Write the structure tokens for this entry.
Amino acid sequence: METTHMYKIGLVGLGSIGTRHLHNIVSVLQERNHAFSIDLFRSGKGKELDEQIQRNITNVYYSSEQAANDYDVIFITNPTHLHFSTIAQYVPKTKHMFIEKPVFDQTDLSLEALSLKNDSIYYVACPLRYTDVIQYLKEWTEKEGQHIYSARVISSSYLPEWRPGVDYRTTYSAHKNQGGGVSIDLIHEWDYLHYLFGKPEQVFHIQGTFSHLEIDSDDLSLYIARYRNMAVEVHLDYFGREPIREVQLFTREDTIVGDLLQSEVRFLKSGKTVSFHESRNDFQRKEIEYFFDVIEGKKQNENDIVRAMETLKIVKEGKVT
């Protein structure tokens, strides 16, 4: 089979999510028979690259000044509080960008100052949209005659167990000035609500630090939102000792639970269960497939920087713009 495209790719930052994206980029492009080169931009503080990663990297650079000006895509996967300055540095050097979520850690930033190109794609990650559970609920909610009265969303888990072998107190999640805090760390929940139901009309928000955890970021965030024909409750925390990640829909006919950890949808009244047996990497890989479909003109960008900023303002300020 002929090679159909040659991609020149840059990757800024190689933490756990950057590493996952790297493996999925390689897998997706090889499957599509695209040739590629991948340059890695590092701060110099990361650990030594393992052999498998080295095989997929063409060059390693330690400064944006070393970057060429002809990248097809640059992936921004460094810490959230560095995103704005990093995007500004690399906009002149690439056609398109994939930006890890959350897009920024602050809302009072000027997108004009980034000098984004009009004909380029700037996509912000939102991987839970690509889970089978959310895709099923998206299709279900768009059917005629569904009467959803309210939704309740919960993401509860224990921060010290998020990253095995890593002291949670040293991670960005623990520190507000590094873009940490449960409100912004778990922006996934508001992202998929935005995807399923659009923007709310009004939001009430309470957040703070209530647990024993040794952090200076918020460990609890509660929202109540009003839509035109429904209401939504959102509970996010860092201290739940048994992980829960669910969206519950209360409808005229049934109560439906989308369980993202079990990868299933349960209809509590009728007793029906739809199981998907999906792993985390399945939906992360689907997102990379979707992104390349967008830059190849096969699909529309459904989460650009402007939309991601709208979600961020709901999450950070309880404001609807």
